Amino acid sequence: MLRLSLGRQHLNCNGASRRHALRLGACGLIGGLTLPRLLELQALAASPIAAKARSCIFLFLEGGPPHQDMWDPKPEAPPEIRGPFGTISTNVPDIFVTDQLPLCAQMADKYTILRSHSHNDNGHSTGYHYVMTGHRPSFADGDNPIPNNEYFPSIGSVVSRTLGQRGALPAYINLPHPMQAGGPGFYGAEHAPFVIEADPTQPDFEVKDLRPPGHLSDKRLSLRKQLLSGIDQLERERNQAQGKAMSTYYEKAYSLITSDDARKAFNIHAEPDAVRDAYGRTQLGQCALLARRLVEGGCRFVGVDAPGWDVHFNCFPSLKTDLIPYADRAFSALVTDLEQRGLLDETLVVMMGEMGRTPRINAQAGRDHWSMAQTIIFAGGGTKPGQVIGATDKHATAPTGNPVGVNDLLRTISVLMGIDPDRTFLGPLGRPVPIVDGGKVIHDLI
C-alpha cells in the first residue's frame, strides 16, 4: 500500500501546484517549509520540469576518484596540492580538465561538470550508503559484513518501484557484481537489482541464468511452469505476502529465460570489434557498453560498480596508466554512442564515487578520503551540456559557493526521470517515508 504526500489533484512534477504550495505554507502543514523552499515550489509550479530520462546509467567509481587529478585541476597550486598532471583545454571555451582526460576533453560540449558536490561522510561503505539512499547509515564504516540497505532503498530500487519494467528486461540491473548499498531496503526483494556477476571482458561471457537447461524442451519447460504455479498457489494460501512475492520472482525469472529480447540485450558479443575497442577492453569499458545495450533493451536503471579508486599509496602511476584512462575512454564512448543512436536525450548518465580525495598529497604519495569536495559528471536525460556548475577554492578543499548535497543529487535524478521525489511509501512501522528526504533540484543542470 502506498501513500502520497500530497493529493494527486495538486501534483506537478515536483509534487505540488503553486496554489497548493501556498496554502500548505500558510497553514504550516509542511514541517520545515522555509521561504526559499516555498519560492522553489512556486517556481517549479510556474515552470514545470518535463521528464526526459527514460533510463539512467550510473557509473560508480568506487573508492573515491581524485577530483583535482581529473575534473577540477588547480594548476596554480603548489605541487603537493596540484599533483604531477598538467591541465588541458576542452572543446568548450574556458573549461579545463587534467591532461589525463584527452578523450573527454574533446567532447566537453556533451556533458556537464559539477564541481561543488559535498557531504561529510568520509567512510567507504557509509558514504556509499549515503549517496545511494540519501540517508545516513545506522552502521559504522568498516563493519564486516557490510549491511546492505537494511531499511532505506537505493535510487535504483526507487526507479524500479515507481517506474516499473519497460519491456522484458528487469527495471534495475547491477553489474559486474552487486553495488554496495544498492539494495531495496523496505521496498522488498521484488525491487532488488538483477545482478550480472560475470566479467564482460572475458571471451566466454554470458548471463548463465538466462539459459534454460539444455535437456528441457519448450514443452517440458512449460509443463514445469504449470507445476510450479500449482505449488505457488498453495504457498500463497498458506502465506499470502510471501507467496505473492515468490510468484512475482518466478514470473520474472520465467519471462527472462524465455525472452529473445533479453538474451539479445545481454549478448555483448554481437557488438562489432570497433565498438568494443572504442569503449576499451576493460571491465569498466565493457560494462558501460553492456549498460548501453540494456537501456536500449528497456532497462530503467543500470548501476555499474567500478572499484579500485581508493588511492592512498603511490597513486599516480596507477591513475595515469589504468584508472583515469579507462574512465576517460568508457565515459566518452558511452556518451558518443548514445548520441549516435538517438538515445542520449532519454538516457541520463551519471559518473561519480562516494567521495573525493584530500587536497594535499600524503607522505605515501597518495591522496586520502575527502568527502567535502567532489566532482560529478552528468550527460543526457534532459541535462544541459557544455558547462561547469559550482567551483572549489584554490586547493580544491571545499565549494566556494552553495554546495550541492546528496539529497540535491537524488532529488534532481528523480525529477529528470519523472519521479515525484516527495512521494511517500509506508515503511515497516506504518510511517510514510519520502523517496527523497529534503534537498533541492539542481536547476542549473536542467
Give your account of this protein's structure.
There is one protein chain. The protein is an alpha/beta fold and 446 residues long. The chain contains 13 helices and 15 strands. It folds into 2 domains: 1-48, no CATH class; 54-201 and 270-445, Alkaline Phosphatase, subunit A. It has an 8-stranded mixed beta sheet, sandwiched between helices. It has a 3-stranded antiparallel beta sheet with strand order 1-14-15, with no helix packed on it. Strands 3-4 form a two-stranded antiparallel ribbon. Helix 10 packs across helix 11 (283-296). The longest helix is centred in the C-terminal third of the chain and has 26 residues, at 315-340. The radius of gyration is 23 Å and the shape is globular. It starts with a strand and ends in a 12-residue tail after the last strand.
**Major sheet description:** 8 strands, mixed
| Element order: H for helix, E for strand | EHHEHEEHEHHEEHHHHHEHEEEEEHEE
What's the CATH class of the largest domain, please?
Alpha Beta
| CATH-derived architecture of the largest domain | 3-Layer(aba) Sandwich
Number of strands: 15
Provide the number of structural domains. 2
Portion of residues in helices?
25-40%
Query: For the largest beta sheet, what order do the strands appear in spatially?
Result: 7-6-8-2-9-12-5-13
The low-confidence runs, each spanning 5 or more residues with pLDDT under 50, are: 1-33
Mean pLDDT figure = 85
The CA-CA distance between the termini, in Å, is 32 Å
